[in-house]
Write a structure and sequence with these properties.
- It is a single chain.
- With 133 residues, this protein is mostly helical.
- 44% of the residues lie in helices and 0% in strands.
- It is built from 6 helices and no strands.
- α1 crosses α2.
- The model has no long low-confidence stretch (mean pLDDT 94).
Length: 133
Amino acid sequence: VASGECNLAVANHYYYVRLLHSDDATEREAARKVGVIFPNQDDRGTHVNVGGAGLVANAQNPENGIRFLEFLASDQAQEVLAERNYEFPVVEGVKKNPVLESWGDFAKDDINISILGENNPEAVRIFDRVSWR
């Protein structure tokens, strides 16, 4: 987009914020040439990727696994993920990174993510059929 090859790209927001904070002046300049929009604000809202963590049934140390999961959901871990990885915090009350905060609020698509998993095999077949990589 920054080079003019296209007018629009779909990307995860944190890559854009990483470019804004890059040590490379060329990357910072590229980021300043583009912006962020949240589509479907008058309709279903913008898709939000969800990262998850879990504990496998045969974990060798389930107690520490549970402690780690609880830590990931703590204010402290969410602050680190927000500040250093530019993630939107999932714990209410944890501040967003200032760049994300500057974008304001946006409508989020509330689709049940289990439906996405159910549709994944068909989506992969479509990607393969059109040679999408």
